[in-house]
Protein backbone atom coordinates (compact mmCIF):
# COMPACT_ATOMS: atom_id res chain seq x y z
CA UNK A 1 0.00 0.00 0.00
CA UNK A 2 1.17 3.54 -0.55
CA UNK A 3 2.26 5.32 2.64
CA UNK A 4 -0.65 7.77 2.16
CA UNK A 5 -3.27 5.00 2.53
CA UNK A 6 -5.43 6.08 5.49
CA UNK A 7 -5.36 2.70 7.27
CA UNK A 8 -2.41 0.61 8.38
CA UNK A 9 -3.92 -2.49 6.81
CA UNK A 10 -7.13 -3.65 5.17
CA UNK A 11 -8.42 -7.14 4.54
CA UNK A 12 -9.99 -8.07 1.24
CA UNK A 13 -11.04 -11.47 -0.11
CA UNK A 14 -7.90 -13.39 -1.10
CA UNK A 15 -5.64 -10.39 -0.45
CA UNK A 16 -4.55 -8.35 2.55
CA UNK A 17 -3.17 -4.86 2.01
CA UNK A 18 -0.41 -3.85 4.41
CA UNK A 19 1.14 -0.40 4.70
CA UNK A 20 4.94 -0.35 4.48
CA UNK A 21 4.92 1.39 7.87
CA UNK A 22 3.93 -1.96 9.46
CA UNK A 23 6.96 -3.85 8.20
CA UNK A 24 9.31 -3.22 11.10
CA UNK A 25 12.49 -5.06 12.01
CA UNK A 26 11.44 -5.34 15.66
CA UNK A 27 8.16 -7.07 14.69
CA UNK A 28 6.21 -4.72 16.97
CA UNK A 29 3.32 -4.52 14.48
CA UNK A 30 2.91 -8.25 13.95
CA UNK A 31 -0.42 -8.16 15.80
CA UNK A 32 -1.95 -5.86 13.15
CA UNK A 33 -0.80 -8.14 10.34
CA UNK A 34 -2.14 -11.17 12.25
CA UNK A 35 -5.48 -9.40 12.75
CA UNK A 36 -5.89 -8.63 9.06
CA UNK A 37 -4.93 -12.16 8.03
CA UNK A 38 -7.51 -13.50 10.51
CA UNK A 39 -10.13 -11.68 8.46
CA UNK A 40 -9.54 -14.27 5.76
CA UNK A 41 -11.72 -16.48 7.96
CA UNK A 42 -13.72 -14.00 10.02
CA UNK A 43 -15.17 -11.27 7.88
CA UNK A 44 -14.67 -12.89 4.51
CA UNK A 45 -15.70 -16.55 4.96
CA UNK A 46 -17.81 -15.94 8.08
CA UNK A 47 -19.38 -12.52 8.11
CA UNK A 48 -22.07 -10.41 9.70
CA UNK A 49 -25.63 -10.17 8.41
CA UNK A 50 -25.58 -6.38 8.78
CA UNK A 51 -23.63 -3.67 10.60
CA UNK A 52 -25.46 -4.40 13.85
CA UNK A 53 -23.43 -7.61 14.00
CA UNK A 54 -20.11 -5.93 13.15
CA UNK A 55 -18.63 -7.48 16.29
CA UNK A 56 -18.64 -10.91 14.58
CA UNK A 57 -16.00 -9.78 12.09
CA UNK A 58 -13.88 -7.83 14.50
CA UNK A 59 -14.42 -9.82 17.71
CA UNK A 60 -13.39 -13.11 16.11
CA UNK A 61 -10.45 -11.46 14.30
CA UNK A 62 -9.29 -9.83 17.56
CA UNK A 63 -9.63 -13.13 19.43
CA UNK A 64 -7.67 -15.02 16.75
CA UNK A 65 -5.05 -12.26 16.60
CA UNK A 66 -4.43 -12.53 20.32
CA UNK A 67 -4.23 -16.33 20.18
CA UNK A 68 -1.54 -15.94 17.52
CA UNK A 69 0.30 -13.43 19.73
CA UNK A 70 0.05 -15.88 22.66
CA UNK A 71 1.58 -18.61 20.50
CA UNK A 72 4.33 -16.35 19.06
CA UNK A 73 5.28 -14.76 22.38
CA UNK A 74 3.70 -15.90 25.63
CA UNK A 75 0.71 -15.66 27.96
CA UNK A 76 2.03 -12.41 29.43
CA UNK A 77 1.88 -10.62 26.05
CA UNK A 78 -1.63 -12.02 25.49
CA UNK A 79 -2.79 -10.74 28.88
CA UNK A 80 -1.08 -7.36 28.45
CA UNK A 81 -2.65 -6.72 25.04
CA UNK A 82 -6.03 -7.87 26.35
CA UNK A 83 -5.82 -5.47 29.29
CA UNK A 84 -4.71 -2.56 27.13
CA UNK A 85 -7.61 -3.23 24.75
CA UNK A 86 -10.03 -3.46 27.66
CA UNK A 87 -8.95 -0.13 29.18
CA UNK A 88 -8.96 1.70 25.85
CA UNK A 89 -12.48 0.45 25.10
CA UNK A 90 -13.64 1.37 28.62
CA UNK A 91 -12.44 4.93 28.04
CA UNK A 92 -14.32 5.05 24.73
CA UNK A 93 -17.46 3.66 26.44
CA UNK A 94 -17.19 6.35 29.12
CA UNK A 95 -16.89 9.02 26.41
CA UNK A 96 -20.05 7.76 24.66
CA UNK A 97 -21.97 7.60 27.94
CA UNK A 98 -20.87 11.13 28.85
CA UNK A 99 -22.11 12.29 25.43
CA UNK A 100 -25.43 10.51 26.06
CA UNK A 101 -24.74 8.13 23.17
CA UNK A 102 -24.84 4.89 25.12
CA UNK A 103 -26.31 2.99 22.16
CA UNK A 104 -22.84 3.06 20.57
CA UNK A 105 -21.46 1.06 23.52
CA UNK A 106 -23.63 -2.02 23.00
CA UNK A 107 -22.39 -5.23 21.44
CA UNK A 108 -25.50 -5.12 19.21
CA UNK A 109 -26.24 -1.42 18.73
CA UNK A 110 -29.48 -0.07 17.32
CA UNK A 111 -28.31 1.61 14.14
CA UNK A 112 -31.54 3.50 13.61
CA UNK A 113 -30.09 6.22 15.82
CA UNK A 114 -26.46 5.98 14.77
CA UNK A 115 -24.76 4.94 11.56
CA UNK A 116 -22.03 2.37 10.87
CA UNK A 117 -19.32 5.01 11.22
CA UNK A 118 -20.37 5.54 14.84
CA UNK A 119 -19.77 1.91 15.75
CA UNK A 120 -16.40 1.71 13.98
CA UNK A 121 -14.58 2.04 17.28
CA UNK A 122 -12.60 -0.46 19.32
CA UNK A 123 -15.70 -1.32 21.36
CA UNK A 124 -17.06 -4.13 19.10
CA UNK A 125 -13.51 -5.50 18.74
CA UNK A 126 -12.96 -5.71 22.49
CA UNK A 127 -16.49 -6.68 23.54
CA UNK A 128 -16.51 -9.42 20.91
CA UNK A 129 -13.11 -10.60 22.10
CA UNK A 130 -14.27 -10.65 25.73
CA UNK A 131 -17.41 -12.59 24.83
CA UNK A 132 -15.32 -15.24 23.06
CA UNK A 133 -12.88 -15.45 25.99
CA UNK A 134 -15.86 -15.86 28.33
CA UNK A 135 -17.24 -18.66 26.17
CA UNK A 136 -13.82 -20.32 26.03
CA UNK A 137 -13.30 -20.20 29.78
CA UNK A 138 -16.87 -21.16 30.70
CA UNK A 139 -17.54 -23.74 28.00
- Give the N-to-C terminal Cα separation: 41 Å
Q: Topology as H/E string?
A: EEHHHHH
- Measured by DSSP, the beta-strand proportion falls in 5-15%
Structural class: mainly alpha
Number of strands: 2
Q: List low-pLDDT spans.
A: none
Q: How many DSSP helices?
A: 5
- Shape descriptor: globular
Strand order of the largest sheet: 1-2
Radius of gyration: 15 Å
CATH-scheme architecture:
Orthogonal Bundle
Mean pLDDT score:
85
- Total number of domains: 1
What percentage of residues falls in helices of 4 or more residues? 40-55%
Any chance you could write out the topology, listing elements then pairs?
Blueprint: E1 9-12, E2 15-18, H1 30-38, H2 54-72, H3 75-98, H4 116-119, H5 123-137
Antiparallel strand pairs: 1-2
Account of the 3D structure:
The structure is a single chain. This protein is mainly α and 139 residues long. The chain is 51% helix and 6% strand. The chain has a two-stranded antiparallel sheet with strand order 1-2. A hairpin with a 2-residue loop joins strand 1 and strand 2 (15-18). Helix 2 (54-72) crosses helix 5 (123-137). The N and C termini lie far apart (41 Å). The mean pLDDT is 85.
Question: What labels would you give this structure?
Answer:
mainly alpha, Neutral Protease, domain 2, two-stranded antiparallel ribbon, 139 residues
